[in-house]
Amino acid sequence: MDRLPALSSLSHNEKDALIHALWAQVQALTAQVGILTARVAELEAKLRLPPKTPDNSSLPPSQGKKPNRDDKPARQGPRQGSLGRKGGGRLLAEVADETVTARPSCCAQCEAALTEADLTLASRFDKVDLPKVVPVVTRVERYAGHCRCCGGTTLAPLPEGLEPGTPFSLNIVALAMYLRFVHHVSYRRLSRLMLELFGLAISEGALDAAFQRGKPRFDAETAAILARLRRARVVCSDETGVRIDGRTCWNWVFQNNEVVIHVVRRSRGAGVVAEVMDGHRPAIWVSDLYSAQRGHAEAWQICLAHQLRDCRYAAEAGDIIFAPRMKALLLRAAVLARRHRGLAESTRREYRRRLEHALDAVMALAPTNRHGQRLRKRYGKLREHLFTFLDHPDVTADNNGSERELRPTATYRKVTGGFRSTWGADLYAAVRSVIGTATRRSTDAYQAIRATLQGQSILAPG
């Protein structure tokens, strides 16, 4: 109805119909106004919310905005020594490859001759250099013998490492894999690096083929690590996004103090956990609150670092009743987690009883802010999983170990943009599994890669 009709020309029935139509329209508009008013209030409330930062949300540190640092006053005097040692520079090498001795023969003032008795050692220091690295080419000439008696042909046996096939040795492949998977060097830059630093011409395709040849060794070692994980009592897990051929996938990590397993799958669901664990149900599971991480063990420890972050955001968003008290309680638990391994069982039980009593007092609060209400509802359901670590001295109160294992994946994703093939993602996961497991045995990444390519296991018997 664009305009009101002439009411004098309408009958009583027509006027009644017009009134009913207008009433229905008023009711519909009133309902719509109510919805829009609520939406406006919601948007206005969001405008008053604090910004999300890496300290109070899941925002990665790379996206956080850091304030400019204040100007530092000029240092007075020499720089102090680093933490843990006195000043004075680099320590001398235990064994020097070469020693150069400088002795004066005459006095610099009067030119009188100086004898050995006149000399004292004034200083001793090291100068460190790197020799030029060039490829060492070994040409193999293999002869075949033809027997005059039976007519057979016998090929000469070859020394280990000089088999026919690829011209590149295991050491070259290990170095290339180390640079690729630890330092995130792309194929193009890796090929250029090999040429400019070592004088070794190796194409991107040759690098790709070398990695594919080495993959079975890493798959075999990963299978052994996975078998060890499926006997573990404690498992910590987390996941992060990766890109494979332009599609979003997920890098899952499962780790504890003994082993690390990375797998890359297209799914972020609980089916990945079921596949990896293969029926094994550990005693303790440590993770965040993501639903796919729940229900895989007899007991569950929630990552307290994530909960502290959420409490901080709620407090910044205006909750002055629940979030500050809950944050203080979680900080008490985090302090205990740093030393609970050395406490007696009875002491740990007493600390947990005190924390539970304090939690009862916090849960009795009635927050009015919606963020505080959300947290109170959450901990009402999950409170039994907050202090599980006090019942098990081998369990941490956070999932920082998993976060650290996934950090190289995030860096790799940003530097390279992701993976071009599924086998490349699987190889990356296998290499990171081997490196993470080796690190727990004080073996560096390069030595772990080299040992795996040689067919040596990084796992101790057990």
From TrEMBL:
Residues 47-88 are annotated as: Disordered. InterPro entries: Transposase-related, Transposase_IS66_central. PANTHER family: BLL1576 PROTEIN, PTHR33678:SF2. Residues 168-426 form the Transposase IS66 central domain. This is IS66 family transposase.
